[in-house]
Amino acid sequence: MTSELFGYRKYWAECFGSAPELPMSRAEMDALGWDSCDIIIVTGDAYVDHPSFGMAVVGRLLEAQGFRVGIIAQPDWTTTEAFTALGKPNLFFGVAAGNMDSMINRYTADRKIRNDDAYTPGNIGGKRPDRAVIVYSQRIREAFRGVPLVIGSIEASLRRIAHYDYWSDKVRRSILLDSRADMLLYGNAERALVEVAHRLAGGADIHSIRDVRGTAFIRKTIPPQWQVVDSTDIDVIGKATPHPNPYENTQTEACADKSPAQTSVVTLIDPRTSDKSVVIRLPAYEQVRDDPDLYAHASRILHKETNPHNARPLVQRHGDRDVWLNAPPIPLQTHELDQVFELPYTRLPHSSYGDATIPAYEMIRHSVNIMRGCFGGCTFCSITEHEGRIIQNRSEDSIIREIEQIRDTSPAFTGVISDLGGPTANMWRVACKSKHIEASCRKLSCVFPGICKNLNTDQTPLIHLYRRARTVPGVKKVLIASGLRYDLAVETPEYVKELVTHHVGGYLKIAPEHTEDGPLSKMMKPGIGTYDRFKALFEKYSAEAGKKQYLIPYFIAAHPGTTDKDMVNLALWLKRNRFRADQVQTFYPSPMATATAMYHSGRNPLSRVRRDAESVPTVRGLAQRRLHKAFLRYHDPENWPTLRKALRKMGRSDLIGNGKVHLIPSRQPPKRFQAERGTTTFTTQHNGLPRNPARRRQR
């Protein structure tokens, strides 16, 4: 039975009340009358007390449970001094890399270090270490031996099992082992966090807490009440064998001599006839490290076990120890999510930052998150792995109250709400028609290869929300800046009309990602025809509203499943439609994503992994990755020499010339004449992360 998030008896320290802002120094603690903190959160981001920032949500939630919570933001990790600033916590340290994975935050897709950091005052890069969760945890262990250590955030969440690491180009073991943490919380971790905190406050040893959903930890042995089922029995890996001949004499000596290893018969445990609970054993770290096929298989099993209503625990051996993953957390109910977003946030950066600008905060300070989760299942994106496929909705009243709070308390508010959205703009209140079907479903996407017949796609409630929001006194305009799922939008044309007429600021960004079926099938994205349907509606309703508005499509280069020919066809589509990508992004293999498994293994985990299955085309070398990126910027004279060479090699010299049918000119003009030709300009930056850098709740 899942406890209500706010149904626990509050800890005794509730008598101190809510802090104006959670303390980051001893002086602030003294001013609050605290002699110590019960829980200390260490984060790689600057502390912004806003519900778009993970440390603020975690801190305010724990405060609402009666705990005294301190924040150590972006500490100097070269010594232990910064980690002792608030003293020793009474219950535990919580460690998070921040709203983004520290490696993705610090490096480009070409593994070049970034000079900026949107989550740092002044946009200064280098304020967090590589693999921040591991480094912060090591410093805490050095400073305070024996204090319980709990890790979380997107970085820990996506590294909870053995995972391919793009930056070292190898499979690394679970982050639990490298961080030496006592427990890992994955996904949206409010339920687990609150339960663990109250149990520790009640005197429990952290190593005795083994039944909380959404947690992972180390075990030496499997308890006797668990029946272990090998993942290869559930999803057989191996050569595809032909169907047996029904006319074969099964009594022959040859058949009788077959050893068990030569047969494909497996014995499965039927939970209905067993008195033991089932845990699925994934291939061990050492196996997936050395066998790409087993890595792809393990990825497939993990993604099949993500529905909190039917997922089973997973276990993976690392040397002489097991990493155990409990089933995912139960999604928050609407009233619980409302309470989380209505905690007493100041909606401001910590006062110690003064007037310093924090770009991620500036982008979202007047935005409102209306939901969590995404059932799109795009293979290159980590939202689903972290937030889940079941949409968690806020109530309309709660959303309106937040808009009114922004209007009444933000001195910088000019009447414009910059976004009403979330991981996806138009999945609010979209769900399966049947709770029973939802609870038993193991599909990786509700909208691929087509929209599931059991999905209620009516976006009328969202229309009502938009209309109510834009009529709030003092609100001049409500924009929609979150990514839009256009294949859903076309199912409710009235929604597209409302969006285009009132909530687009001249440009609307959507993400077809590609035009060709090969890469689209590996991304689990709809065909370009769906984009054309949406474009027609967009242009129709823009014209009816008397507005000149533009669609800005995002595309991604070098995704698994993409060939050079696919990129040629995409470049030709861009030219035909007079699009010019000013900035583009190549595929970024983030940990645990399905597309990353394709990139590493060359197999397709969207279907059963077999050793003799067709390989997935993978763009790995830097030169080929840059070539695919160059096709997206076919108009840039600097790319023409590379493209000429590639097109000639591909036998497509017919695309080189000075006519309208040609992709690039045959001659390189002098630099002073390399003015870009007249096409529609748009900017696209996409790496599988939300385009709003502070949009995802990463705890």
What is the radius of gyration computed over CA atoms, rounded to a whole number of angstroms?
26 Å
Note the overall shape: globular
Q: Give a quick account of the main beta sheet: strands, pairing sense, barrel closure.
A: 10 strands, mixed
Helix run count: 25
List low-confidence stretches.
240-273, 676-699
- For this structure, the CATH topology of the largest domain is pyruvate-formate lyase- activating enzyme
- The percent range for strand residues is 5-15%
Say how many strands there are.
27
CATH hierarchy: architecture of the largest domain: Alpha-Beta Horseshoe
Number of domains: 3
- In helices, the fraction of residues equals 25-40%
N-C termini distance? 23 Å
- Quote the average pLDDT: 91
Structural class per helix/strand content?
alpha/beta
The level 1 CATH classification of the largest domain is: Alpha Beta
List keywords for this structure.
699 residues, alpha/beta, 10-stranded mixed beta sheet, 3-stranded parallel beta sheet, 25 helices
